[in-house]
Amino acid sequence: MKRDFLAVTDFSKEEIFETFRIAEQLKADVKTGKTHHYFANQTMSMVFAKPSLRTRVSFETGMVQFGGHALYLGPNDISIGKRESVKDIAQVISRYNDWIMARLFKHEHMIEFAKYASVPVINGLTDYNHPCQIMADMLTIHEHRGTVEGQKVVFIGDGNNVCNSFLNFAAVVPYHFVLAAPEGYDPDPETLAKAQAAGLSKVEVIRDPIEAARDADVLYTDVWTSMGQEAERQKRLNDFKGFQINDELLSYAKSDALAMHCLPAHYGEEITEATLDGPHSVVFDEAENRMHAQKAVMVMLANSAGAGIQV
Q1: Which one is catalytic: 114, 245, 262, 299?
Q2: Residue 179 belongs to what domain range?
Q3: Which of 40, 227, 275, 285 has CA 20 to 30 A from 259's CA?
Q4: Residue 207 lies in a domain
Q5: Are 6 and 131 spatial neighbours (Cβ–Cβ below 8 Å)?
Q6: Whether residue 262 lies in the annotated active site
């Protein structure tokens, strides 16, 4: 049976922690030059409706390290749902490739991709969520703190797709998640309600970033204006004044708090350059962990189909 990774909730708590274990081992092996050609001669189509530095490089490099090959299909190569239907694209690619990674606008297209593809589909981002990013983020916290359970993670900014994935994580693994956002920038209401109803994690939405940051283990942010929202840029700059991660905001968090950002960063807006390059920052550990976490997700999906990979 093929299995997809479209949301963090596709994995159980135990599977998430096993993914972290695999990722840490694969990361250690990369550092020592040990190779694992688990997917030798396999191919992955990387379908990009939205461009990305980290998603492309991490998946392409990871596939090479696994002994396989990844093909980049950009926005001009495949017009998702326009030039050709999603279901036809999914079925055609499945005849050529062993894996599909898609980075799309509409989450409905991701679901349709998975429905009609006969090979595993990995969600590289949609407007609704970003599960690979959150797996890398939580792996990073796990590395630096020894656990993610019970950690207070404060997301400063827009209740966007990354925020939705933090909420999905809260429905599976117990931790304390706080969104500090101005009125009008809350996350998906259904996702928020499910995270709170799961009863595993403490989940809050707070309007005051200083109140939210008190005793935080992690301060996390993302750009205020995402791709497709460029027309709202000036309004967002005004609305998010005061919601910046900087030295002052960090002073309200724990003394050893981690500063995180999924990148790309807009210095002087959601975060200062001094903070991103400062002693609290683990941003580039986080960026590196995209590759290791995604490789571990691939191993998990393959093993669910009976691959029997031992890491």
Answers
A1: 262
A2: 133-286
A3: 227
A4: yes
A5: yes
A6: yes
